[in-house]
Design goal:
3% of the residues lie in helices and 47% in strands. The chain is mainly beta.
Amino acid sequence: MLGRNLQLPSILLFVMAIISCGGGGGGSSNSNPSGSGGSSSTSVTYSFSGGTPTAAAVQIGTGTFTSATLQSGKLALSIPQGTTTYAIAFVCPPTAGFGNTVTSEYIIEAAIQDGTAFSLNCGATLTTSNVTGSVDASAVPGAANVLIRGTAGYGGQLGGTTGTFNVTLPNGTNDVAFVAIDSAVQPNVLAVKILRNQTAPGAVNGGNAVVFSSADLTANQSFAVTNIPSGFVTPPAASVEYYTANGTYILLDNNSATQYPAVPAAAKQSGDFYLFEANTSDTATHNSAVGITQTNTTGGSATIALPTQWTYSGPTPAKLPTFTFAYSGYSGLADVAQQAEIEWAPTPTTLTTITVTATTNAQNGATTLAIPDLSSISGFSASAPSGTNVYWVAAIYGGSAEEFSFYPNPPSNGSLAFVQNRGNYTQP
């Protein structure tokens, strides 16, 4: 059925920020993409929203990493004439996850051809406040409850078809979506009503009741996932979401593997889009996975094709291993990135992760990617002690041009596929 939890790579949003045609553009006046002639350097800027990194470092060309300082949430680099590649590294503030305190270290290897302005997020939660109001969904046949959603999926539920609500949404302007569902264990979406530009804190709809009518009922559309690899779980996990231009999203589920409930015309506005997603893993070990995310503004009947499986047994065990990527499944795609990750538990309640992502331009034909040693720079992690159980993840991303450029919202039209393998080894 649609709406099942998807086993997506944990840093997909960081990949979205770097794998894009032009990297969002925004080049500075002294940009020199060719690396020769004209001005003497190219300026590249990474802007951080959410939490501010606790440590940062940069590498120009093939030089060594050196400590760097953010200014007003931005990490600025100057790439000299004749040099095209660079890398940034940063450590996000510790976060809670899976019962542990997680410290995440990221390295992005890129080239000036990828663009000059990027946006990243270190995972801080949004500041929230309460909104109030009332709902009447009694006109929706079969309705049993109403979900209330704002920016980034924040919200709550009514607990019935009529009554008052008091839910928590991110501060400021929200598109507030009201989703009428039935009483199934995996509820079916029956109707959707969206009120634009509501303010938190405050009263939704000016304090007037939000009343559903027949114009708010959903209509089922077909949805198919193709190219499922042999020996992989079938049907794959899949979901359909609806995003508003202001960052509110809702899950569209109707307990069917072949259909989804489309948002009614009365709820749509320019800038909104649908997000279709699917992934699956091998039935034997679940260590090999494939997946794709695809967006469009039209909805309607949708078919998404999973990428071809990639088989990889993992890196040779090392304190800082080197990963090998050999995959032809993205031939012809505009944007490709390789990613390597290791993680371990220094204590029973802490987890350390190091993730390296490299664009095709940065790799320039290379098929290997190494975890760099940044332990000599203050704030970065040392490698795991000998005998530690280290988990590894290797992934290759492929996307269409002009897509998945900025966090937190995906683009309204685009696609991003991934192939992934994972395992573990004992630290030498």
